[in-house]
Amino acid sequence: MVQNQPRENGKSIVSKVEISPISGKMMIPLSCSYGIGRSHRAARYAWGGLFALLEQLIAHSTVAPRGGGVRFYRMRGVYRMMTSIEYYVSPDGGDEQPGSLEAPFRTIGRAQRAARIAAEGGMAGEITVICRAGTYEVSRTLIFDERDSGRDGYRVQYRGAPGERVVWSGGQRVTGWERYNESIWRAHLPNVSNVCTLYSEHGRIPEARYPVSGYLHTDEADHADAPSATKGFHASNHEWPPVLKAEGLKVYIWPGSGEANWFAETLPVRSWDAASGWVQLDQPATWGLGGGSRYYLQGSLELLQPGQFYWDPAVAKLYYWPSSAPQAQNETPETAILVVPHLQRLLQVSGSHAECPVNALSFEDLIFAHSGAFPLYRMPLGNAEREEHREGLVYVNYADGVEFHNCQIRHSGTSGFFLDRHASHISIVQCRIEHNGYTGINVSGFAPGEGDFMDTAAAYTNKHHVISDNLIAHCGELIGHGSGITLYQSGHNEVLYNRIRCTPRYGISLKGLRHGVIPATVYGSPVTWENHWDALFTRNNRIVGNDISEVMEDSQDGGLIEAWGTGRGNLISGNRLHHSGIRFSYGFGIYLDDAADDFTVTGNLIDHLYSEAKGTLWMLIFSKGIGNCIRNNLLVDNPLAVAAIGMQEMAGEANRHVTVEHNMVLDSGALYYFVNWSPDRLTMADHNLYWRSGQPCLVLGKLPLQPLGADGLGRFSYSWTQWRTLADGAFDANTRIADPRLKLDEEGYRLETPSSALNLGWSTLPRSFGPRKFRSLD
Fold this sequence. Notes:
The protein contains four helices and 68 strands. By secondary structure, it is mainly β.
C-alpha cells in the first residue's frame, strides 16, 4: 500500500493504492477522482504537475504493478485517475459477496453484472474478471452483448487466474446410475430434453450405432415403383439386425451415391421393410440415394455396444455400456466422469444489431467445454450453413474486436467457434480447439444475395479476423465433412501458423459460390461475368505457415487446403501439408477447385502424402481457376502421387492463365496432369526442377499430342520431349531434370552443395510451420 500525503481541504488526493496478488495490477477505488474549476488556470497547472510527479513516484516505487499502473488525465478541466478494476469468481464464493480476492463471487453471471455496472458510466482503466480454479457448470447460455463491451479505449477481460485450471462447462456430470443388466448401466435424467452426444474424461462417447465401425452401403433400387431417390434407399443385402425397430431410428449417410461423399447428413427413419430392404426416411435427403452411398444406423437400444450410449427420450433415461478399451478397463459409470451437455451454445458474444456490436472484450486462459449436438442434420445449401445449424460452443455475431487468447475449446457437439454473419476483427490466438462435432473454427458471412442490403459492399460484413498459432484437432466427429477451419464468404483474414490434424475432410476450406450458380440478380443489380467477383467475399485471405496432417480421413474429392467459388487475391504461402492419406476415391494436397481464381500458391512444402486401399492421391496441387500462380513450392517424398501439378476446366468455369514456375518436384509422380487442354491454359511454365530417382519425366492427361500410352486413369501419357514441342516450345525451356541433392534432417529439408536447385534460384527451404509459441492450460 502507498499512502499519499498532499492534501486539499483536508482530503487526501490518493487514499490508498493496492497491488493485486494475482494480476499484479494496481487497484484504486473509483471514488479517487478530484476536479479543479476551469477558472483556476494556475491551480490546474500546479495540480497537473503534482499528478505527473505522482505518476513517476508510483511507477518507480517498489510496488509498481506488472503491466499496469495508474495515470492521471485531464478531461473538461477535471483531472481523473486511470484505474484498473478486478472482480474475482470462485466455485467456493458467494454471489452476495463483493467479488474481491478475499470474498469472490460464485457465478460468472454475477461477475458479469458487476463488470457491466462498473463500465456503464465510462471506463478509466481495464475491467478484469478473474476466475479461480474449478468447474463452472452453466445451465443457460452465457450471453455477452454490447453492455459487456469495453469503452473509452479500455477492454473488459475475462480470464483464468495464472496457473489455475478454469472450466466453463455447458454440461453436468451424470449421477444416480443403476444397473440395467450385467453389462449396461442407466440413469434417469428428468431435466434433460435430449442427449445427442456424451463425454468422458477420455473424450467423446459415441452413440449406439451399427455397424460399430465403418459403413454399410446402399443398393440401387430393384423395382420400377421405388419411391424417389431422396426419400429412401435399399439396404444392401438386407444386412440390418433382424430385431431392429424403426421407431426412433436414424441414419447417418453420405448422399450422392458412390463417390460423391462430399457432405454427410443425419436423417430420421420412418419405416423399413425387412422383406425388400426398402428404408423409408421421414425427411428427404438433400441429394439422391442411389447405389453405393455409405451409411450407418443409430437410435436404438438394440444397437448398443461397449463404449457407447443410448438415450431413450420417452422415459428420459441414459444407457451406457462401459468401454473395454485399455484406458477404461474396470471402469463403471460410478467411477467414471460422464458429462451430458444441455446447451448447444455455451458462450454467445453478440450485440443487439449491426449498429450496436460487442467490442473491446477478451477471454483468456479459460477452458470452454461440453456442448450439445444436432439430433438431425442436413447439409449446407450452396455451401451456406442452414439457419438451424449455425451453431458453435462459442458463437459470435454482431461483434467487432473480440479476442480469445490461450483458451481451450473442447468437446463441442457442433463447431468449436462459429463466427456468424456480422463478425469482424475477431482474434483467436494460441487456443487449443479439439474434439469438435463439426468444424473447429467455422467463419460464415452472407451468401450472395442474402440479407437486406443496398449493394454487395454493404453485405461484406464478415472479415478481418486473426486465427493464429492455434492447435486444432479431431474435428468432424459427428458431421463428416467437418474441417479444421472453414471460411465461407469471409475475407481479409489472417490464418497463420496453426497446427491442424485429424479431420475427416479438409484441413482449411475456403468457400463461396461459383459464377455458374450465383443468382442472376444480387441486391437489385444484374450479375455479369465482369462483376460477379463483387459478390464473392472469400477474398484477400492469407493462409500462411500452417502445419496440416492426417486429414481427408473419411471423405473424397477434397484436399488439405481447399477452395471453391471464392473471391480473388487469396494467398497460400509457407504451409506444410504432410502425412495424410486418401482412403478411397481420389483427393489432393492443395485443391483449387471450381472457380477458385487469382490464388498465389508459394513457398509451401507438401511431403509424405499417400493413398491406401481404393484411394488415389491424384495431384499435389490442382488448379481449376483463372490466374492462379504456383511458385516456389517444394513437393517431395510423395511417391504414390499420380502427378505434382494438375489443371482442369469443368462445370463451365474457366481454367486459364496459370503460372507454374520455380517449383521443385522430387519423387512425387509426373510433373503435370492436364485433364483437358486449351491454348490459354498456361501463361508461364518454367524454371522448375524435377527428379524421380532417374526415371523419365512424364506429362499426363489429354493433350493435342500423340500419346505414348495410357496413364491408368483413362487418359494418356506423354514424354518430356513431346511436352517441350507443345505451343512451339513455349513452356519449361529452363526447367531442369536433375538430382537437387536434397536431404532430410531433424530440422527439415536442406540442400547440399553443389545443387542444381541453386542455379534455379533456390537458396533456403521452408522449415518452420505451426504455432510459433504456445502454452497449455493443462
